[in-house]
Backbone:
């Protein structure tokens, strides 16, 4: 039998699923000297805030409504469970 040409491993894929080791850290993480200077923390904080992707007004509103709804639903469920266990405790320990 001849070996199948599709199964040869002469040209391995250049991509690897393993993380690359020995790579350099990004410049943001290695250049901490600016943060140590007076006012450097504020400058670094402002630089980070400029990178933030802020949500749109519609996205902010819809996600806020979803959070308020879920908190209300959770509070109602906890109240129902609390009242049930309170009622059950009075039946048992009366």
Residues:
């Amino acid at each position: 039998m001849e070996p199948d040409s599709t199964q040869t491993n002469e040209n391995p894929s250049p991509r690897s699923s393993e993380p690359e080791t020995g790579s350099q850290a990004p410049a943001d993480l290695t250049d901490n000297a600016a943060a140590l200077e007076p006012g450097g923390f504020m400058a670094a904080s402002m630089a980070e805030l400029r990178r933030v992707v802020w949500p749109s007004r519609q996205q902010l509103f819809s996600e806020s409504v979803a959070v308020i709804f879920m908190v209300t639903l959770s509070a109602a469920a906890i109240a129902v469970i609390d009242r049930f266990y309170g009622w059950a405790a009075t039946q048992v320990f009366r």
About this structure: Residues 56-94 form one domain.
